[in-house]
Design brief:
By secondary structure, the chain is mainly alpha-helical. The chain has helices at residues 9-17, 19-43, 48-74, 86-92, 99-127, 131-158, 161-181. The model has no long low-confidence stretch (mean pLDDT 97).
Length: 189
């Protein structure tokens, strides 16, 4: 991962003090990740490698949602409606409009989102005292790291390394500015 800035320590303190809110947001993120994978399948059915990998990813992300939802139910919580994710929306606003550029940006932004999730799930796992929850979040940390790499490999498969690296560097710089500008919340992003 090449994130330009680390998550502030205050974020973890907030998450640990409002863990139920974090858990509810985590469930929504997993559901949205599954939907994103299927959206890529729908928009790029001719890209057979992408389709295969995104179908597998959609199933994995939906299983993650199932796991988080089971924990939500166990804790007596109820899912809420979708909430706007300023972090994701600000990243998505950077997507260019032409077909090929838009495709590249979707892959790279997905990689960055998964990269930030990797960092944050690691922080949560290491910050939790409950061994069961710690192990639960270590599994998510490992999955997010794989997904981060998956989207970056796909970008490199469909575009030249020079184009990918140049755009990825730009988007990573922008992601750092976005992270730094947003208020801290008990949420994945």
């Amino acid at each position: 991962m090449r994130l330009r800035i680390k998550t502030k320590p205050e974020w973890l303190s907030l998450v640990l003090s409002q863990f139920d809110s974090f858990l509810l947001d985590h469930a929504l993120c997993e559901r949205k990740a599954s939907a994103l994978a299927m959206s890529l399948v729908a928009h790029y059915p001719d890209k057979t490698q992408l389709v295969k990998l995104m179908v597998d990813l959609a199933i994995e992300e939906l299983d993650h949602f199932r796991q988080v939802y089971a924990l939500i139910r166990e804790r007596g919580l109820v899912l809420g409606p979708d909430e706007k994710d300023d972090y994701v929306n600000k990243l998505r606003s950077l997507m260019r409009k032409t077909s090929e550029e838009y495709f590249l940006d979707r892959l790279l932004i997905a990689s960055i989102i998964e990269g930030r999730g990797t960092e944050r799930f690691s922080l949560v796992a290491n910050g939790l005292e409950d061994i069961r929850l710690k192990n639960f979040y270590m599994q998510f940390y490992k999955s997010e790291a794989r997904h981060h790499g998956l989207f970056l490999r796909l970008a490199r498969n469909y575009f030249s390394p020079t184009v990918v690296e140049s755009r990825y560097d730009y988007l990573l710089d922008q992601e750092a500015l976005i992270i730094d500008s947003l208020p801290l919340r008990s949420a994945v992003h």
